Amino acid sequence: MEISKAELASAAAASAGNQSQELTGAEVLVKALQAEGVNYVWGYPGGAVLYIYDAFYKQDTIQHVLVRHEQAAVHAADGFARATGEVGVALVTSGPGLTNAVTGIATAYMDSIPMVIISGQVPTAAIGLDAFQECDTVGITRPIVKHNFLVKDPKDLAMTMKKAFHIARTGRPGPVVVDVPKDVSFKKVTYTGYPDKVEMRSYNPVRKGHGGQIRKALQLLLNAKRPYIYTGGGVLLGNATNELRTLVDMLGYPVTNTLMGLGAYPASDRKFLGMLGMHGTIEANNAMQNCDVLLAVGARFDDRVIGNVKHFAQNERKIIHIDIDPSSISKRVKVDIPIVGDVKDVLTELISMIREATQKPDAGALADWWKTIETWRSKDCLKYDRGNQDVIKPQYVVETLWNMTKDADAYITSDVGQHQMWAAQYYRFDEPRRWINSGGLGTMGVGIPYAMGIKLAKPESEVFTITGEGSVQMCIQELSTCLQYNTPIKICALNNRYLGMVRQWQEIEYSGRYSHSYMDALPNFVKLAEAYGHVGMLIERPQDVEPALREARKLKDRTVFMDFRTDPTENVFPMVKAGMGITEMLLGSEDL
Ligand SMILES: Cc1cc2nc3c(=O)[nH]c(=O)nc-3n(C[C@H](O)[C@H](O)[C@H](O)COP(=O)(O)OP(=O)(O)OC[C@H]3O[C@@H](n4cnc5c(N)ncnc54)[C@H](O)[C@@H]3O)c2cc1C
Ligand SMILES: Cc1ncc(C[n+]2csc(CCOP(=O)(O)OP(=O)(O)O)c2C)c(N)n1
Ligand SMILES: [Mg+2]
User: What is the 300 CA–ligand 1 centroid distance (Å)?
Assistant: First the structure.
């Protein structure tokens, strides 16, 4: 019989509970992390956390990774969490350490990523006195965390950590900050073991969906003439890709993923219509607008998906919405059948109801619906100039990478901008948790730290970062961390010499007034990579794209920075302009 990690953790907790010990708060903190099964912590030291760093020094089960900037510590732990499904842990000092971490915390919060961020704080007696490196961590992080704690007594540390991990990973996941004043980490306390249970009267997330609601949903789904399954990050967060696959196979209905859901359903399957939304495919967006029954699964009707809400409401459709967070339901779009619960539990119940049902989907109506969808699909909206031999098309780099690695054990991280959208459109993700990017906050700079976090957890896998020359400079210092911890990643920079996504908006929405979107004086990335101890490559011709990628992959143990000089004028299409409806798409430069 296999023993789960959680069981191991609670066994460790129970045995630790047998003997009480006098420990410092910092030592209790480390024991808590060990009991939670934590193997990696990304962090950066400073005065307020030196007792914690001292406690790390005296143990050898947790590897601490010293980053070069606290923002990257949080991103790396976040990338680790996205790829593994475990809670990512970061450690920062008080004041500037915490404020540097804020972007990372907000990024994780917007995409519902389970994390625990431990921050140092000035001693309790100094709080509120403008002490050296003091900041109001609880106040600053309140709007960007699922929960936060200020620990005032070392006696509370173990239970606080237990709660922090529990809150981070249950219900709608999210980051939890634990702020630890220096005296709390220094004082001794009698440690009687890590708690094995946690109860919070005010926090009891629902897992099981309401049976009556699921039955109503089933009825609607079976009576549908133009059904559509719209799935998001919640399917990945809830580890429900198998259930989704079973459901879609049983019903034969078309399915789409949001940017955050890519990989939740295999992109190579014909029933998949591609990503929907602002840069979604014609078929995915038209199906969203024209369906008569919409099953939304772990997706939150984001503005980049729905576009103009009034336009979306012009067509009548019944909406079923499965989401673990009641506050996500009817937030932006009114739904008809809300089902609050965990996507895995709810889909399992729905599947068993479908199995028992005598009624089957309306095959005739479904065939007509598929015919309509195929006419949209035949427009081949992701076509681009593949024959161009003068300049590297950015889409070609992504497509080539996909062709080379589709059967490999590969993870793709990205930064934010046009390159992110091309990665989402042209790399066809068949498996969950392989596509790691920032959707909700859209944080430039995540690409390298995400890759670094994943590579540590998955040393045998290939990890690629698709980035832009703008984004990559926001956390480029982490190339140094990659060398120190031997996390060889492959960076594919689609270098268009522009803040391309900004340039695209300026071309389309601001009559070509390119205000501060051109990057002059870029560094020599090849030399920069070499200066950090890595390999740099400059690729300027389309025919060199594939050989460069091949060579980089061969250099298994090296971090390689590939500087692809791509077409500076290329835009991301389809595109729904701000304020437009999701079917009002620009399909190419001829539409401008
Ligand atoms: C430049 C740029 C362009 C973008 N363009 C697009 C675009 O064209 N198309 C697009 O889709 N997005 C796009 N985005 C991303 C967009 O901003 C949103 O991040 C994204 O659409 C949200 O995805 P989601 O609805 O899957 O929600 P997520 O943020 O992934 O939220 C998940 C939902 O699932 C729920 N959930 C979590 N766990 C569970 C569980 N166990 N059971 C049930 N429910 C659960 C949560 O409560 C939440 O409501 C773009 C972002 C950027 C930066
Ligand atoms: C931290 C941060 N600042 C600003 C932005 C706004 N922004 C979105 S995309 C983009 C341009 C990105 O440029 P680059 O990395 O070169 O990618 P490209 O669009 O050219 O592919 C900017 C500035 C952002 N998303 N994040
Ligand atoms: Mg660029």
Answer: 6
Residues 355 and 500 in one domain: no
Answer yes or no: is the C-beta of 500 below 6 A from any ligand 2 atom.
Answer: yes
Catalytic residues: 70, 132-133, 182, 501
- Verify whether ligand 2 is closer than 6 Å to residue 446 (CB atom): no
Is 329 contained in some domain?
yes
| 49/137 same-domain check | yes
State pLDDT tens for residues 541-574. 999 999 999 999 999 999 999 999 999 999 999 9
Question: 504: closest CA among 435, 549, 568?
Answer: 568
The residue-averaged pLDDT of 467-477 equals 98
φ, ψ for residue 458, nearest 5 deg: -125, 70
The CA 540 to ligand 2 mean position distance, Å, reads: 22
Is the same domain home to 155 and 223? no
Q: How far apart are CA 482 and CA 139, in angstroms?
A: 33
Q: What's the domain range around 361? A: 211-377
- Report how far residue 535's alpha carbon sits from residue 525's, in angstroms, rounded to the nearest whole number: 10
Count the domains in the chain.
Answer: 3
Q: What is the pTM of this model?
A: 0.96
pLDDT band at 3 (very low <50, low <70, confident <90, very high): very low
Q: Rounded to an integer, what distance in angstroms lies between the CA atom of residue 395 and that of residue 494?
A: 9
Which atom of ligand 2 is nearest to 441's Cα?
Answer: 25
Q: Indicate if ligand 1 lies below 6 Å from the C-beta of 302.
A: yes
> Do both 126 and 250 map to the same domain?
no
Q: Is the pLDDT of residue 17 over 50?
A: no
Identify the pLDDT of residue 520: 87
Q: Angle at Cα 217 formed by Cα 215 and Cα 221, nearest 5°?
A: 120
**Residue 11 located in a structural domain:** no
Looking at ligand 1, which residue's alpha carbon is closest to its atom 53?
Answer: 442
Domain containing 362 — which CATH number?
3.40.50.1220
